Amino acid sequence: MSKYILAKIKNKKIKVGIIGLGYVGLPLAIRFLNKKIDVLGIDADKNKINLIKKGISYIENKKFKNDIHFKNFRKNVTLNYSILKHVDVIIVCLPTPLSSSNKPDMSIIKNCIIKIRKHLKENQIFILESTVYPGATYEIFKLLNKFKKFKLGKNFYLVFSPERENPGDKMFSYKSTPKVVSGYSEECSKIAFNIYKLIAKKVFIAKSIIVAEMSKLLENTYRSVNIGLVNEFKIISDKLGINVWDIIEAAKTKNFGFRPFNPGPGVGGHCIPIDPIYLSWLMKKKNYNSKIIEISSKLNASMPNWVCKKIFYYIKKNKIKSKNIVMVGLAYKKNTSDTRESPSIEIVKKLLSKKYHLEFYDTHVKNFDLKNKYFKKKSISMNSIKKYKNQGIVIIGTDHKNVDYKNIFNNSKLIFDTRGVYRSYKSRKIVSF
Ligand SMILES: NC(=O)c1ccc[n+]([C@@H]2O[C@H](COP(=O)([O-])OP(=O)(O)OC[C@H]3O[C@@H](n4cnc5c(N)ncnc54)[C@H](O)[C@@H]3O)[C@@H](O)[C@H]2O)c1
């Protein structure tokens, strides 16, 4: 059977069904469509479906191409799982958040599996792209196979392929970034390799699904630990009265054994604050405390609080009376509109709790509602920054590239810079931490 499937893949005759058309799923759909492969999409969010149906790639606010594959995709985006009976490949790109008690919350995937399992058929390829704890892909398959009794590698194919999508990063592409895949059996891996070879320049087959699951957690834990380290250096530098950016500038001249990471007001998004906890949770169940992983997650999570303490201390010491603040950048990192777990929003909430009046300027986030009468839910214009020339406070929470920082500097009285955008400026009105 796999010969027939492989031929179908090589001839681009496969139909791909993507569940979850968010930051991962929609760009993935577009990659297949660009290669003239049929894609069907499922999402639970009616607004997203409507935007896609209108031909808008809502993540980057761009229009889809006008070719037949994109047109068909627009028609075939739905809330209805039954379309899965028409596809050869099912790729799951659903959220894997944390629960309120800081544990992996796999309920979105599990509920979805219960809904889709009655629509599955023999010889389909099931691929999980969501980030999960090691062992989860196979657990999901067991749930999926409760009634069907598919035989893996014989009449059903199971694959895990971690996503490396980096929203807002123009350097990231499937041309330059290899795709990791791994299947339950050699047959599954071979099929996965050929599917992703259609869209990626380089595909790497990991030794097993659990190795592929762990590789994703290693990549994101590596980031979390290194960001935690550099944030600790930021705190230490502050205590010593040195600028952390000057230290990094010097250290990064070493051309081996050192990779620079940027300090900031904390971490956000759907990966760095979450993925390491998936692993430390599993280790706790196995009676092991993953020390470095936990300590860096805690340190990163405490950064918005540290920033606020510094702001309040400065305000008190310098007897600043104004209650007006503009947060420049609400997104969790530069060049994206993603506000999930954003440290800027944490900081805004803390300032609101102290009765400050907050507004924001973000070139990627146009609206954000905190349902608080002291918070303006529409991004102000660059022109309105002028009102901070003689009074009020500007906070740089995100370092988007397309912001006129010089204009902000010229039109403000006091700037708290948490991202080092003014690191080359020498001015008493800039307070960096
Ligand atoms: N965002 C990233 O940069 C990134 C990078 C690598 C890996 N990941 C991982 O990929 C996965 C998806 O992340 P994301 O950032 O794309 O999330 P997202 O929230 O942007 O997208 C998920 C999509 O799933 C939809 N959805 C939710 N429940 C659904 C359901 N029951 N049925 C159908 N659709 C449903 C949502 O409406 C949303 O459009 C996560 O596991 C994440 O950790 C994300």
Tally the helices: what do you get?
13
**What is the strand tally?**
15
State the fourth-level CATH superfamily of the largest domain: NAD(P)-binding Rossmann-like Domain
Shape: globular
Q: Write down the CATH topology of the largest domain.
A: Rossmann fold
Order of helices and strands: HEHEHEEHEEHEHEEHEHHHHEHEEHEE
CATH class wording of the largest domain: Alpha Beta
Low-confidence stretches: none
Q: How much is the average pLDDT?
A: 96
Radius of gyration: 24 Å
Query: Strand count, sense and closure of the main sheet?
Result: 8 strands, mixed
Number of structural units classed as domains = 2
Measure the end-to-end span. 60 Å
Ions, cofactors, ligands: which are bound? nicotinamide-adenine-dinucleotide
Strand content: 5-15%
CATH architecture of the largest domain: 3-Layer(aba) Sandwich
Q: How are the strands of the biggest sheet laid out side by side? A: 5-2-1-6-7-8-9-10
